[in-house]
């Protein structure tokens, strides 16, 4: 096609086999768009195209993603607000004719197919990724998801379990609940049927395979790309070829001392037994 369509917060470049979406950076641009930067959407990942009237003298061009084609929309599971939808391009009403032309051209190139794609067709966000949740820090290097608990927010159950690391080959999926909802969290679904079943029954604040969000913690533009990258890696990895464990890095002695202090507070409060206290303290000291 070769057409370029510039709207609010993004520019769409129409190519013969894909649409390149370049998101603008700016104070008014949604933070999710800024985090994504740009995305190339193959035509086979588009199930349809719509052009509708928008608010305050605007028109909205939207590419309808094919189910299962984009890890970001799969992880979001319909929870994104309209203004943060990366498949919407809002334009001034005076560009309606150009938008209509691009929509018609795009319809002529795609096969309107809403059957689920067998694999992800849109590239996931690049790793490494990390974000700060209310009860810990989450990081993903492309192979392993790690949760490091915060002494100010993590529950005693998570402290007892200790910091967690999950190779993607041990996971079956990711459950993301928007931080804009009351129960916002990111939960890793384990391939082990017992663990996965138990995990869904345990509240996220008690599940060592989950981190919980809160005001200012796990914002959409950080936690959703994280969830999408993990989901894409899980779908690619399969259940075999678990990465070999790597030696744990030595911890900061001050950090270990702070963790032991907090563990002692849990012990005094009766939330940790004598045996659990002794065992966990020994584990922490061994990391020095």
TrEMBL record:
InterPro entries named among the record's database cross-references: DUF4429, SHOCT
Transmembrane segments: none
Source organism, top-level taxon: Bacteria
Organism of origin: Streptomyces gibsoniae
Domain SHOCT residue range list: 258-285
Residues covered by the DUF4429 domain: 12-106, 138-230
Highest classification ranks of the organism: Bacteria, Bacillati, Actinomycetota, Actinomycetes, Kitasatosporales
Sections of the chain in a coiled coil: none
Protein name: DUF4429 domain-containing protein
């Amino acid at each position: 096609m070769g057409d370029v369509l510039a709207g609010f917060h993004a520019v769409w470049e129409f190519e013969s086999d894909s649409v390149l979406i370049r998101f603008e950076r700016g104070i008014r641009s949604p933070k999710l768009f800024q985090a994504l930067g740009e995305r190339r959407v193959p035509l086979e990942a588009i199930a349809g195209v719509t052009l509708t009237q928008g608010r305050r003298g605007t028109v909205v061009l939207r590419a309808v993603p094919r189910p299962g084609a984009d890890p970001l929309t799969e992880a979001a599971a319909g929870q994104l607000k309209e203004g943060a939808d990366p498949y919407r391009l809002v334009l001034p009403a005076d560009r309606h004719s150009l938008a209509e032309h691009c929509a018609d051209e795009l319809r002529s190139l795609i096969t309107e197919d809403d059957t689920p794609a067998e694999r992800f067709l849109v590239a996931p966000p690049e790793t490494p990724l990390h974000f700060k949740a209310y009860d810990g820090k989450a990081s993903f290097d492309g192979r392993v998801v790690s949760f490091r608990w915060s002494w100010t927010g993590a529950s005693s159950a998570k402290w007892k379990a200790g910091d967690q690391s999950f190779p993607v080959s041990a996971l079956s999926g990711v459950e993301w609940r928007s931080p804009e909802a009351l129960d916002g969290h990111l939960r890793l679904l384990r391939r082990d049927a017992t663990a996965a079943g138990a995990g869904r029954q345990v509240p996220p604040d008690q599940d060592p395979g989950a981190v919980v969000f809160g005001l200012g913690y796990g914002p959409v533009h950080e936690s959703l790309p994280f969830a999408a990258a993990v989901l894409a890696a899980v779908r690619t990895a399969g259940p075999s070829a678990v990465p070999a464990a790597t030696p744990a890095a030595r911890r900061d002695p001050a950090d270990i001392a702070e963790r032991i202090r907090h563990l002692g507070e849990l012990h005094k409060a009766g939330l940790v037994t004598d045996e659990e206290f002794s065992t966990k303290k020994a584990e922490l000291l061994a990391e020095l």
